[in-house]
Design a protein that fits this description.
The chain has 444 residues and is an all-alpha fold. Helix content is 64%, strand content 1%. It has 18 helices and two strands. It has a two-stranded antiparallel ribbon with strand order 1-2. Strand 1 and strand 2 form a beta hairpin. Helix 5 crosses helix 6, helix 8 runs parallel beside helix 9 and helix 9 runs parallel beside helix 12.
Length: 444
């Protein structure tokens, strides 16, 4: 039982428990036993913080079913190892070296020291952002739905947004609030900070703390911070511009928007496309160009250590920097005056190839099982599942049972990570003293 297998089996255990709970009569609004496929799909989507649904969350599930989905999304967003470790800390136990290694791999950290402190910081950060989001959303939801329902809607959407889960209790997601700056910006901030990674947030906090107290020492940011923030900002800007130019330039599909609403909707879609899954426009009405732009943004996803999915911003940045180095005739990859190690480059290539292979295979299988669907719809659905986004053109509920199983597996692989999943199957690599002679070959 290797560390990677422990993490993968931990997620499977949580999914199984969630499936059993969602099958119970108390979980459905009509009080009957739930369809096992619906329960399994919903549980996987929640634990993998995806947001794809085969039944409307707000009407199909009861309050207890919705609460179960929310708890599964919270566990999935924090991660199995983070949740388990927090429970160990609550009962006052110390964890051994094996658990420290598991935390290191789950959070993609370099060292094992300070594991308990980082877990406490993650829990505290999560609570601060989620509670703040709840209070900010209250005025908009209470005014329209009353006090009790407004409080529940605020809690559900704040936690769902922070964990990049994309579950909504509204049948049209957030289309009804597309002109509400309070809702759109609050959800956007929760999504951005939830997906950018806890390390980046903590580093930003300590930098602000030192700046306020005018501490002139150790004010430089790490390479992780620089790459994650700069790449996220670039794709947020590019996504906003792309949606403005491609999708919202005409009013025939989404209605009349003034310039302010156009920008607000475009910005929100650029944010939520990066693994959140909420939508403020009807995705099914988007053009093929808009769908393909969304697919590209979904595939890139969030940043390491956050609640988002995809191949991650750091991966795409390393790969583009490799391309830049080759074009400039350089033999080293440099980022912010730092040399990127070869092992990191190989890992980025592995993530890309594994992700592309998973998406292609899932797309082919669904194209065979559901031949009546358009290719762009299938590709969109698969990438949304793999990148744990949750956006859909509206075909999820009508998919065949086999296609739903494929999406369930795709969501699971996307959440645990391609490399971790393969490592769980093959086992940990064994060191070798064998070195082979080098030889060149033609490439490109």
């Amino acid at each position: 039982m290797t560390v990677s297998r422990t993490i993968c089996l931990g997620f499977l255990t949580v999914i199984a428990v969630g499936t059993i709970l969602l099958m119970m009569p108390f979980a459905t609004s009509n009080g009957t036993w739930n369809d096992p496929i619906v329960a399994l799909f919903t549980s996987t989507s929640a634990v993998c913080v995806t947001g794809l649904i085969v039944e409307d969350t707000g009407t199909y599930f009861s309050f207890w079913g919705q609460l179960c989905i929310l708890l599964l999304a919270q566990i999935g967003g924090l991660g199995y190892m983070t949740t388990t470790t927090f429970l160990i800390l609550l009962v006052g136990k110390r964890f051994d070296m094996r658990q420290k290694i598991a935390i290191q791999q789950a959070l993609d950290r370099r060292g094992m020291s300070g594991s308990s402190q980082i877990i406490r910081s993650i829990i505290a950060t999560t609570l601060i952002f989620e509670i703040t989001g709840i209070f900010l959303l209250l005025p908009a939801f209470v005014a329209k739905h009353g006090l009790n329902q407004g409080i529940w809607l605020s809690i559900f959407h704040s936690i769902s947004a922070w964990n990049n889960a994309g579950f909504s209790l509204f049948s049209d997601s957030l289309v009804g609030y597309q002109s509400s700056a309070l809702v759109m910006l609050t959800i956007s901030v929760l999504i951005i900070f939830g997906g950018i990674g806890y390390q980046v947030i903590l580093e930003m906090f300590f930098w602000l703390k030192k700046s306020l107290f005018k501490n002139q020492q150790n004010r430089s940011f790490s390479l992780d911070f620089k790459v994650a923030t700069s790449t996220s900002i670039v794709f947020l800007i590019l996504g906003t511009i792309a949606f403005l130019l491609v999708e919202l330039r005409t009013s025939s599909r989404f209605g009349e928007f003034n310039l302010y609403d156009n920008f607000l909707v475009s910005f929100f879609q650029s944010v939520t496309t990066r693994t959140a899954g909420f939508n403020s426009i009807d995705i099914g009405q988007m053009t093929n160009a808009g769908l393909f732009i969304t697919i590209a943004l979904m595939f890139i996803g969030g940043s390491p250590g956050g609640t988002g999915g995809g191949i991650k911003t750091t991966t795409i940045r390393v790969l583009t920097s490799c391309t830049k180095s080759i074009l400039l005739g350089k033999t080293e990859v440099i980022l912010y005056e730092r040399k990127v190690p070869l092992s990191l480059i190989l890992k980025a290539v592995g993530v890309l190839i594994g992700s592309v292979f998973t998406v292609i295979l899932a797309t082919i299988i669904i194209a065979i099982t559901d031949p009546k669907l358009e290719f762009i719809q299938i590709l969109f659905e698969v990438v949304s599942a793999f990148a744990t986004v949750g956006l859909s053109t509206g075909i999820t509920g009508g998919l065949s049972g086999a296609a739903k199983i494929v999406l369930i597996i795709t969501m699971y692989i996307g959440r645990v990570g391609v490399l971790l999943f393969i490592s769980a199957i093959l086992g940990d690599p064994r060191p070798t003293r064998v070195h082979y002679p080098e030889e060149s070959l033609l490439v490109g």
